[in-house]
Design brief:
The chain has eight helices and seven strands, in the order H-E-E-H-E-H-E-H-E-H-E-H-E-H-H. It has about 210 residues and is an alpha/beta fold. The protein starts with a helix and ends in a 7-residue tail after the last helix.
């Protein structure tokens, strides 16, 4: 971790521990080295640092491209390993290349299969974009479920509420068969594979909910 990242990491961990009384489950399931995709549900702007701060390795984050245009904000975001993507979170060809480069260099990156924050706190259907990223990379996928962030600070709240937050990391997923099939299948089948992977990831996230234990 560089200095800026470590300061932010410690600051967020302190906030989560004191104001939100957070709990972290199974961070040891995330590889400590090498490329890895952390695929999480998305309910709040609290989610990205919550997922990253539960780990003791630095992680790459996704940031809206327009934010990087502001000199100070852009400098800070880059120091936090953020990748600029387009407004819809798809990243476009440029964003995808940068994500793949980070994974190839041995970095971890947080992606949200739903594409945007939930409006009601429930899991949303997965978009196929994460399936494309999985196929284009060789990195394992670790499903992650965050709890309490919708109640603490959703898009309708003006200020965060002191609600308990939790983050739970699942077992790595590798998709060897689908990755092998994708190498020489038809384009229509390839699109199906992207969505298949996205749906499998969302199912794995759903299984991490407390009731599953």
């Amino acid at each position: 971790m560089n200095l800026s990242y470590r300061i932010a990491w410690l600051t967020f961990r302190t906030m989560y521990a004191t104001y939100f009384r957070w709990r972290v489950f199974n961070p040891e399931r995330v590889p400590q080295t090498g490329g890895v995709i952390l695929a999480a549900n998305h309910a709040s702007i609290l989610d990205p640092p919550l997922v990253g701060c539960g780990l003791k390795r630095d992680i790459n984050y996704i940031g809206r491209e327009s934010l990087f245009r502001y000199p100070v904000v852009g400098t800070v975001l880059r120091s936090w390993n953020s990748v600029p993507v387009d407004r819809d979170g798809g990243g476009g060809a440029k964003g995808l290349r940068e994500i793949l480069n980070r994974l190839l260099a041995g970095g971890g990156i947080i992606l949200f299969p739903e594409g945007t924050r939930t409006m009601d706190g429930n899991l949303q259907p997965a978009r196929s974009g994460i399936g494309l990223t999985v196929i284009k990379s060789a990195a394992p996928v670790v499903p992650v479920c965050v709890f309490g962030t919708f109640e603490a600070y959703n898009r309708f709240h003006k200020f965060p509420r002191p609600h308990r937050l939790m983050v739970k990391y699942g077992q790595p997923m590798y998709f060897e068969k689908l990755r092998a099939e994708a190498k020489d299948c038809s384009k229509p089948r390839l699109k199906e594979i992207y969505q298949e992977i996205a749906d499998e990831i969302m199912a794995a996230i759903a299984k991490l909910e407390p009731k599953a234990d």
